[in-house]
Amino acid sequence: MGRFFLHAFLLLATLFFLLPVYLVILTALKEPAKITLDTVWHWPEPVYWESFHIAWEAFRPKFQNSVVLALSATALSALVGALNGYVLAKWPFRGSNLLFALMLFGMFIPYQSILIPLFQFVKAIGLYGTLWGLILVHVVYGIPIVTLIFKNYYSEIPDELVEAARIDGAGFFGIFRHVILPLSAPAFVVVAIWQFTQIWNEFLFAVTLTRPESQPITVALAQLAGGEAVKWNLPMAGAILAALPTLLVYIFLGRYFLRGLLAGSVKG
Amino acid sequence: MRDRITAFLVLLPSLAAVAIFVYGFIGQNLWVSLTDWGKNPAQALALRPELHFVGLENYLELFTGFVDVRFRQSVVNLIFFTLFFMGGSLGLGLLLAMALDRGPKGEGFFRTVFLFPMALSFVVTGTIWRWLLQPQGGVNVLPTLFGLPPFHFPWLTTRQQTWVFDWNQLPFYTALAVGLTLLYVAWKAHREGERKRLFWSLLSSGVLLVWAFTLGRTTHLLPYPEPHGFSLALVGVILAAVWQMSGYTMALYLAGLRGIPVEVLEAAKVDGASEWQTYRHVILPLLAPITLSAMIVLGHIALKIFDLIFAMAGLDYAPTDVPAIYMYLLAFRGNQFAKGAAIGILLLLLVALVVIPYLVSQLRKEVRR
Fold first, then answer.
1. Nearest to A195 by CA among A266, A264, A122
2. B151: in domain
């Protein structure tokens, strides 16, 4: 009896999570004229692949923006995080713990509380409407979380390793390059996955700071789906495109994905 | 020594960036919220607008001004959204974790399925659910596949409200809720024998309750009654948000359940506890810290929810309005920068209210260790 309820519950839950996905695929594969509300759940006859072609044509520039944005901001912020974490874990100075705590505060703020000054600032330095402005913003507001992850990770590396290298005459960057960096791969993976998904999925900064030519895909999708006249096959195909990169990351690197999730779960 | 200076110099750009982009901007935003920026349309988009200090006028207008009735409904929406979203994600997450903890066949598959929406953006989730919740389609016609009559709930398009109350009673209800919470804290302090905490919580609870039932009932924010309530259009938004986030609480709870030592459960069994009693008195109390962390994370997400609602209902749809949406609308569509900044500050205060006690308790725990 208990087993029966268990499986019934799991089946229901699976339906709850997967039926939306099924409907998305279904709708994306339908000819626009055949999308009617009372037959939404019917399998498309014939399957209409054209939607993906059209959606890809429409979204390609935005998709490219998202790729450039997410990859470069992730790379930069991983580098910054590794250096910060290295300093805080292995070269602490008086007051460094306090500064670290003050830095972490930036993780918790709702970005609405800095959005207007940020908008003014980005405009004033001439980066409004450019991808570079958005990259800068993501790197800066990523500092707390990436520093946290790297600092925690580097704290586990024994100080003796650093000491030994120092006695051998290695300097600040020498130790980083030859002792710390070779051990850092797991931290880089966690940070890269976390930042990539966050930045790829981000919307508030993107919608506030970009113009149409520099929009990432999230903004384009929200605007396309918001238009009333549009046929639903396109937003659905667009949603699949927008979701695919992070979904692939989740499927293939799920273990690390979860680790980043648990590490950085209170990020703004 | 040279290395120490290098270390500091390496950290410096990040420190400067956080100092400017976090602390500096919060300060500037606070200042903007105390000015009249946006009141004069000629000044609104000027490169160097002339700003005048107006004190708390923007805040006062938001809570008591005639035109900002939408803000007040957005606050009410936010409260209901936060409560139901947190309750739903915690409840469903716990159920899923409990089911998976029994080690059904295909556990890995189920875990992947329940957690995958976490990898999506709120924009994608919102787009998907906007389509699912079309009044004459999607979820509503699902029963017809099994020969049942369709649902008729209009989801996002409804303008109906329930649990309607007068905005003027807000001081009363707030004092009542906080007073009762403090009373509960006092009761717990009494049972744990913490005299100081008992005294202070009892005292402040008493003051609040007395105020609520005397002056609180006659304190009016507005000269006229203004009804607000739980906007039913939010039900769909809550559903989508729970769909996205309950996998996360499941992962947290599952880790917690797996961490409970077998001996503890054995001991409960030896003591003759039924399965229900074991959950009620052994497992759930052990999961309490996880529930607290999850509540903080979910509360944090809920308070600044923006993209999900933007994608599901757009900026201009009052029934699903929340402060983050209204803030964006005011500042970036209406050029009412000062009032937008005021909402930003209010959101910051709300989040601080949730996060700071949590951080302090975490810090204390670490010190104790």
1. A264
2. yes
